[in-house]
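Box S2. Input/output pair 1.
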Amino acid sequence: MKKSSSITALFLDIGGVLLTDGWSHESRKLAAKTFDLNPEEMESRHNQAFDTYELDKLTLEEYLSRVVFYQKRSFTRAQFRKFMFAQSKPYPKMIELVRRLKTRYGLKIVVVSNEARELNSYRIRKFKLDEFVDFFISSCFVHLLKPDADIFRVALDIAQVPANQVIYIENLPMFVQVAEGLGIRGICHTDYKSTCAKLSALGLKVI
């Protein structure tokens, strides 16, 4: 195991980095089309309910009651839940990259993610994220949402690493900037190749 002299932990988002987003705008558009729902009404109701759901103040059933099943439907909740979960797909090269970096440098791997409990738990199990992630600082567990800087402070406290020894990989520029405001080195992820190059420049060589 080779230790990096300055980086001891890698913080990561899940959606957009390791996996596709769990319940993105595009997924909701597809759901509206698949289940013959009014997309504008569904999106409006989603926007009113989703932050509360991601903070674990609504269950999935309560979220669905507010967004979809506020009136009688021709399909079941089980059918809709199955569709929701099926939207999650892995980015295998990114997952393998993180596994290799953990092994090579002995890094702590910490997820810092806005995700609702049921989707988050499904994604962790389905894609075996707990095989290489040490801590999950998910909004549903800590009741904080990015871009609140406190979610990164909680991650630093739980991981017991100083900010200047952390790299954070995230696909949303604002969230990267929030982390950088705490002294964390950020990488705005757009694709595998460029992220590998940025990691290498920060001392984590990808072999």
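Box S3. Input/output pair 2.
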Amino acid sequence: MNHLNHVAIIMDGNGRWGLKYKKSRNEGHKAGLKSLEEIINETIKKNIKYLTLYAFSTENWKRPKKEINYLFNLLENFLQNKIEDLNKKNIKLKIIGVKNFSSKLNNLLISCERKTNKNNKLQINLALNYGSKYELINAFKKLRKINKSINEKNFQKCLQTANIPDPDILIRTGNTQRLSNFLLWQLAYSEIFFIKKLWPDFNIRDYNNIIRKFKSIKRNFGNV
């Protein structure tokens, strides 16, 4: 039976869900937070140590400005209202991506990271303004700057996920089968599950079904 240590999720389909059921993409993003809270709590119950969430990509800046503003306001409110609860649950929050948001959001993200830094029940890696291609190029630049040999060990130390084990599972909801510039290096040997459901419809039963399937998979890592 495979040990599950790290789950990564592309939470796709919020906007489409909102248009389908509420005639508003923003309502879909709001509904997606409820699913997120359920999955976080279930991840703790399953004693999974790492959860990486693709919340906002470098490509998402192409979306309408009103929707982007709503997303960031939603994030600010969520962190302000939930950070104490996350802290009590012994959850560590780490941001991967480039923090070039408003000074208010940047300061809030830094504050949440500092407040939860010593927690060790679950580490949530929140991918904000994250793009894997940028991460890979930047890692090579760091290697060159510090004049280190280009090898796998040194390279991994220069990634934003340094000291974080690679995901065992990637889940993508929303009936889309692609990686969308997410953790391209780290997902090399992850088991990938593409789910038809939109993210707000994804529930604990779906999550546990995936976990059961993962634990029964024979993982060879190139061996036989």
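Caption for Box S3: The helical segments are 14-21, 25-45, 65-88, 103-115, 132-145, 152-157, 204-216. Residues 6-216 form a domain with the Undecaprenyl pyrophosphate synthetase fold (CATH 3.40.1180.10).
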